[in-house]
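Structure in, sequence out. Go:
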């Protein structure tokens, strides 16, 4: 997903869930910041680099594919953008190396999603925003994995867009191109993707890079044949699934506010969303890029709250963090975000490691062995009684 959903739609979901205008801005800013919090930015802020929730294109260009580097990539992308669905999935006639990647495939309503939302319970608004980013991406990024893999993430010639036509849909073949300047052409179903690399672990084969931004568009419906599914055709209906994502965010945010006692899989707050359902579905189905979708969601959010939604400004909270003393940084806006990011990454890495999968690296049980991990995570030890798993 892109800014239209992570920022403006998340604001709408938070407001419908009962958060105030200012609280909703904090939640949605944090959700969008997940896509901008890179190691480069954290270095500029002299903040813990391990709190990185994304990697810039320039960072990816310099990224190596040795074991340690791949583990770092997987920790970021599996924790925040491609949350694994089933870490214990089985598959016949499948080697362990491939099975570990297969188990990182992202889909909605996983056990890890329950863990993600509950982790943010009684936490900061920034933690709620991080959780909402992760939740939303499970819908947009379904069937891709947050680790480089040609077998899992590649696309082939059998990739078709379904265009609404009359009472049904017309099937149009999608053309993928690799270009640094050409925009996606919605009228011709031409989408820019990553450059084909035959190496299984090439950076170009991370996530949905081989499908470009196509999975991030709310209007799109497509069919394709992923290799991991034994070349059985998969249908992805983004307007329907993005609506589910929105309703699930409202439900999750109400749980985080304490309005409901439980957070369960496959549950959506359609009742709170019902008065706005037709307008939301109209936005989701409109064939437009990120800029147009941002304007539509912004207009809806301002209609809901009667307040102006500020534009996302990457530098808004940086000076506060830089000027804060060493002992006060955790109480700043970005300090709270950093703690939430470290906590989410620590939890997901621990779950992957406990499943017997080393693709995200090693995890040490703090309660049993004491602190032996990256010093960036020491802040969590101070904040959480009973220790930390990283």
């Amino acid at each position: 997903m892109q800014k239209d959903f992570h920022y403006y739609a998340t604001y709408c979901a938070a407001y419908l869930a009962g958060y105030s205008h200012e609280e909703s801005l904090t939640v949605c800013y944090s959700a969008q910041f997940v896509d901008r919090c890179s190691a480069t930015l954290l270095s500029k802020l002299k903040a813990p680099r391990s709190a990185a929730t994304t990697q810039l294109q320039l960072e990816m260009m310099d990224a190596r594919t040795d074991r340690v580097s791949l583990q770092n990539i997987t920790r970021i992308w599996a924790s925040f953008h491609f949350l694994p669905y089933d870490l214990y999935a089985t598959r016949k006639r499948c080697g362990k190396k491939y099975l570990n990647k297969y188990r990182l495939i992202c889909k909605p309503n996983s056990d890890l999603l329950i863990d993600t939302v509950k982790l943010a319970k009684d936490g900061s608004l920034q933690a709620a925003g991080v959780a909402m980013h992760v939740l939303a991406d499970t819908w947009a990024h379904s069937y891709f994995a947050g680790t480089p893999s040609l077998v899992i993430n590649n696309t082939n010639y059998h990739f078709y867009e379904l265009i609404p036509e009359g009472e049904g849909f017309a099937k149009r073949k999608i053309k993928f191109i690799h270009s640094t300047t050409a925009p996606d052409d919605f009228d011709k179903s031409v989408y820019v993707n990553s450059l084909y690399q035959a190496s299984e672990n090439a950076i170009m084969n991370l996530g949905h890079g081989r499908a470009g931004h196509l999975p991030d568009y709310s209007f799109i419906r497509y069919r394709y044949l992923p290799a991991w599914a034994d070349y059985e055709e998969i249908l992805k209906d983004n307007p329907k699934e993005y609506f589910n994502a929105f309703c699930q965010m409202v439900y999750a945010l109400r749980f985080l506010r304490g309005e409901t006692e439980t957070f369960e899989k496959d549950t959506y707050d359609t009742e709170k969303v019902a008065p706005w359902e037709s307008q939301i579905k109209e936005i989701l189905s409109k064939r437009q890029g990120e800029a147009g979708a941002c304007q539509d969601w912004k207009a809806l959010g301002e209609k809901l709250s009667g307040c102006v939604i500020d534009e996302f400004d990457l530098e808004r909270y940086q000076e506060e963090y830089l000027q804060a003393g060493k002992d006060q940084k955790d109480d700043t806006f970005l300090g709270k975000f950093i703690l939430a990011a470290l906590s989410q990454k620590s939890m997901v890495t621990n779950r992957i490691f406990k499943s017997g999968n080393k693709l995200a690296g090693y995890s040490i049980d703090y309660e049993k062995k004491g602190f032996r991990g990256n010093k960036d995570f020491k802040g969590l030890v101070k904040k959480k009684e009973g220790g930390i798993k990283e």
